[in-house]
Amino acid sequence: MSDAEFVGESRNGAPVGDLSALIKGTQDKVATYLAHARTRQRRLLTQAIVGGALATALTASPALGGTTLSDWIDQTFGFSAPAWQILCAAAAICSVAATISTQMLKSNNLDERVAKAEAVKARLEILEIGRMTGNLTPEQAATEYSACLELASFI
Question: What is the 3-state secondary structure (H, E, C) of 4-38?
């Protein structure tokens, strides 16, 4: 039985027998998901790192600079509160931003989802090569494609 002998339609309207079109469509969805997820992952990671580093620097500066730094900040910016309080408040805000970023990465399982999407992408590429070279029968290709769809269910 060749790929073209399958009958029916998929959810996107392509003939079920047109496995190549189904694989290509799924590859496109996975690629789009990966592009967005990797961007979000990088942003959250960068925000966590920068926020943590700024919190550390802002907290440590009054301790390291002492009254000289505090007096200079007070004179330069004219804060009504002591400079160390302003710096510690800013450090707290940066720390909260870093914590929220880290929790968003973990609570959304973003790392795990990106890894799964990359695995699905690789399996689809292998499936397409196996199908094109004839190493997989249409039934094997359809079974493997179904397994890929199950793995990609979060997308």
Answer: HHCCCECCCCCECCCHHHHHHHHHHHHHHHHHHHH
Domain boundaries, the chain: 9-151
Gyration radius from the chain CA atoms: 27
Annotate 78-131 with DSSP letters as a single string. Answer: --SS-HHHHHHHHHHHHHHHHHHHHHHHHHTTHHHHHHHHHHHHHHHHHHHHHH
**Which run of H or of E encompasses 56?**
helix 19-77
Q: Is residue 44 within 8 Å of residue 32, measured between CB atoms?
A: no
- Reading the chain (155 residues) residue by residue, the pLDDT tens digits are 344 444 444 444 444 458 889 999 999 999 999 999 999 999 999 999 999 999 999 999 888 888 888 888 888 888 778 888 888 999 999 999 999 999 998 888 888 999 999 999 999 999 999 988 889 888 899 999 999 999 888 87
